[in-house]
Amino acid sequence: QVQLVESGGGLVQAGGSLRLSCAASGRTSSSVFMGWFRQTAGKEREFVASIRWNGGSTYYADSVKGRFTISSDNAKNTVYLQMNSLKPEDTAVYYCASKTVFVGPYNYWGQGTQVTVSS
Question: What is the DSSP string of 64-98?
Fold first, then answer.
C-alpha cells in the first residue's frame, strides 16, 4: 500500500503561482510513476503531469506545458507540481497518484487539494 497526501492548494489570481506537494508513505519503493491529475465538477479526471520515480523522466499535458513543472525529492518521498502563469481554467481539484506498473492505471490516489484561480 502507498499513502499519498497532497498539500499546497489555495486561491490565487490569474498569472500567479502555486506549488503543490505530495508526500508518499508506505511501500513507496514499489512506485514506478508518480502523477498529478485534476478534476472539475461534471468533468472526467484529466492527466496533468507525471514523473518516473527513479530516473526523472517527465511528461505533461499540452495544456500545461511550459507553465507547470513536476519534480521529485526521492529522499523525502515527495513529488511537487510547480504551477506558474495560472489561468482560471486551471481551477480544479488536483490529485496526486502513484502506479506500480509501467503500463496500466494508477493504483493509489490522494484525497485531492483545491486550486482556485480567480480572473
Answer: TTTTEEEEEEGGGTEEEEEE-S--GGG-EEEEEEE
